[in-house]
Amino acid sequence: MNSVDLITEDKSFMQEYTLSEITNKVVWGNALALLPRLEAECADMVFIDPPYFLQLPNKELRRWNVKTVVEGVNDEWDKFSSFQQYDEFIQKLLTEVKRVMKPKATIWVISTYHSVFRIGKIMQDLGFWILNNVIWVKTNPMPNWLGVRFTNATETLIWAVKDKSAKKYTFNKDNAKLFGLGKVGANVWTLPLCSGKERLKDKEGKKLHSTQKPAELLKRVILTSTKEGDLILDPVAGTGTTGCVAKALGRNFIMIEANRKYVQGIAERFNNTPAVYNFT
Ligand SMILES: C[S@@+](CC[C@H](N)C(=O)[O-])C[C@H]1O[C@@H](n2cnc3c(N)ncnc32)[C@H](O)[C@@H]1O
């Protein structure tokens, strides 16, 4: 698939998109502006990995015993002026996403302790019904260099339906058992951070994106909560992990990403996918 077929630029704030125009595309644009122009009740599943609002200090963070600088998430897209502004962003995003979810669709939202509790509250206030939280335990977490608190080795995925009345949503329990902890397949997934060949790099060989999620994580999300041919929406797509894995697993996708640099990265990634996403 070449980038002309894959990427669409959201140029007009008037244009309403039909599903055929936008399915299996990455739209370069602002999700908050675009989602209201998308057909209602079209998505079978939504995956959202929103900004974390990490609030890192503006100074460099250095490891206590070496001179290297800690690589955190210090991108412009992660900056908000206050919790209120962050909450408003999350609330608008989730409100629009809820409108485009089919009645039996499910939604996954991933975050760290910095914001996951706020997101959970906002979801409940908007009427989403939380089915589970899944804890992702990282086998290779970034150490707590200053030694002042526990090493943070987990992220939380909230899995929910639109409202309490949604019953016959997709849940592939055999896959859930396969991926989850222990014989019962509990809600704990153990897998490493994205690294090595899988990690997208820029021209200088640095990470293209600070929070690229592992394909294995999306594989688990998609195989437990969708069927082949389903339409998966990721409105804050980053490096496009959701769409790449969706395609490899025979699902359809719509991705939206505001940052041109990442959109370009997604196009390149789609041209180089087979080795990394050849799931068996
Ligand atoms: C945590 S990252 C997603 C990473 C992604 N899951 C991956 O595997 O690469 C969040 C992304 O949301 C994008 N973003 C933030 N606000 C946005 C908006 N209003 N519309 C579209 N994308 C947005 C940022 O540019 C960033 O790439």
Structure, described:
The chain is α/β, with parallel strands linked by helices. It has a single domain, classed as Rossmann fold (3-Layer(aba) Sandwich), CATH 3.40.50.150. Helix content is 28%, strand content 20%. It has a nine-stranded mixed sheet with strand order 1-2-9-8-3-4-6-5-7, with helices on both faces. The radius of gyration is 18 Å and the shape is globular. It starts with a helix and ends in a 9-residue tail after the last helix. The model has no long low-confidence stretch (mean pLDDT 91). The site of S-adenosylmethionine has 19 residues, from helix 3 and strand 9.
Any chance you could write out the topology, listing elements then pairs?
Blueprint: H1 3-6, E1 7-9, H2 19-22, E2 25-28, H3 31-34, E3 43-48, H4 83-100, E4 101-111, H5 116-125, E5 129-138, E6 154-161, H6 173-179, E7 188-191, H7 215-225, E8 231-234, H8 241-248, E9 252-257, H9 260-271
Parallel strand pairs: 1-2, 2-9, 3-4, 3-8, 5-7, 8-9
Antiparallel strand pairs: 4-6, 5-6
Helix pairs in contact: 4-5, 7-8
Bound molecules: S-adenosylmethionine.
What share of the residues does DSSP label as strand, in percent?
15-25%
Helix share of residues?
Answer: 25-40%
Which cofactors or ions or other ligands sit in this model? Answer: S-adenosylmethionine
Q: Characterize the largest beta sheet: strand count, sense, and whether it forms a barrel.
A: 9 strands, mixed
Our Rg estimate from Cα atoms comes to: 18 Å
* H/E topology pattern: HEHEHEHEHEEHEHEHEH
Provide the CATH topology. Rossmann fold
Give the averaged pLDDT, no decimals: 91
**What's the number of structural domains?**
1
Going by helix content, strand content and strand pairing, the class is alpha/beta
* Cα shape: globular
**CATH class annotation:** Alpha Beta
Adjacency order of strands in the biggest sheet: 1-2-9-8-3-4-6-5-7
Number of strands: 9
The poorly predicted ranges are: none
Helical region count? 9
Give the second-level CATH assignment, the architecture. Answer: 3-Layer(aba) Sandwich
CATH superfamily: Vaccinia Virus protein VP39
Terminal CA distance reads 22 Å
